[in-house]
Design brief:
binds 3-methylbut-3-enyl trihydrogen diphosphate; Undecaprenyl pyrophosphate synthetase; 8 helices; binds magnesium ion
Length: 252
């Protein structure tokens, strides 16, 4: 149990998920990959509501990586369409659950209609004080870090910062999600054990959970299983187990 003082199972405040396996789920049914992505949206809705009901503060979902442009144009186009339709259909659900939606990643590459819809739903949910739902779309961990380095370089160029004053705290301020706690729990469905250029900076001390379950089959029961895995971890942040037992948990 990673929070011995509370007496209850410790809950992550921030969960980050690579939602993988839609294509294989569809193929196993003799269906087109698009059907798998549609089923993936239903799983996403279940998990968003599960997080909202469990008072989890932040949920970050990998929806489209900077590498996913390499897929066949037909699949990329149908995903863009699916994002648009899903944003349209799910705004009411987000508001009902008090969810505040934000996209992270380079959205400039998306079709203008999708960019507009993203900005609109972000605006419509901005006042919600419940779950912070971050959708990583055209996101890459290396892009994120490179972008932060560019911002810092601009500060130096403008004479507002000295190179020797750049430290981890300053760097952290410029990567995505700096205003939220770093993910406590990372989940990847679909059987692969890799990070695939997701939150490289932010996952430095995150607990990693992998399951073979394909994303469209992921549900509340599976989510609770991941939460139990998390509750069983001892987060040491470099210290010894004995130190953590004496001093209590808590990050560095
Ligand atoms: C994840 O499922 C969804 C996206 C990357 C958009 P995949 O489409 O990668 O599913 P598999 O890995 O082919 O089964
Ligand atoms: C990672 O899944 C990206 C998303 C879930 C959006 P992929 O299925 O694209 O990952 P790789 O390329 O197999 O590692
Ligand atoms: Mg995949």
């Amino acid at each position: 149990m990673n929070d011995p003082e509370s007496g209850t199972l410790a809950r992550p405040q921030h969960v980050a998920i690579i939602m993988d396996g839609n294509g294989r789920w569809a193929r196993a049914r003799g269906e087109d990959r698009h059907i798998g992505h549609q089923a993936g949206v239903r799983a996403t809705r279940r998990v968003v509501e599960a997080c909202a009901n469990r008072q989890i503060a932040s949920l970050t979902l990998f929806a489209f990586s900077s590498e996913n442009w390499r897929r066949p144009p037909q699949e990329v186009n149908s995903l863009m369409e699916l994002f648009l339709v899903t944003l349209e259909n799910e705004t009411a659900m987000l508001n009902r659950n008090d969810v505040c939606l934000r996209f992270i990643g380079d959205r400039a590459a998306f079709p203008p209609a999708l960019q507009e819809k993203i900005a609109m739903v972000e605006g419509l949910t901005a006042g919600n004080g419940g779950l912070r739902l971050n959708i990583a779309a055209n996101y890459g961990g290396r892009w994120d870090i490179t972008h932060a380095a560019q911002c810092l370089a601009q500060e130096v160029e403008a004479g507002r910062l000295r190179a020797q004053d750049i430290d981890e705290t300053r760097m952290h301020a410029y990567v995505c999600l700096a205003d939220q706690k770093e993910p406590d729990l990372f989940i990847r469905t679909g059987g692969e054990r890799r990070i695939s250029n997701f939150l490289l900076w932010q996952l430095a001390y995150t607990e990693l959970y992998f399951t073979d379950t394909l994303w469209p089959d992921f549900d509340e029961t599976e989510f609770d299983q991941a939460l139990r895995y998390y509750a069983g971890r001892q987060r040491r942040y470099g210290r010894t187990g004995e130190q953590v037992e004496q001093e209590g948990g808590g990050d560095v």
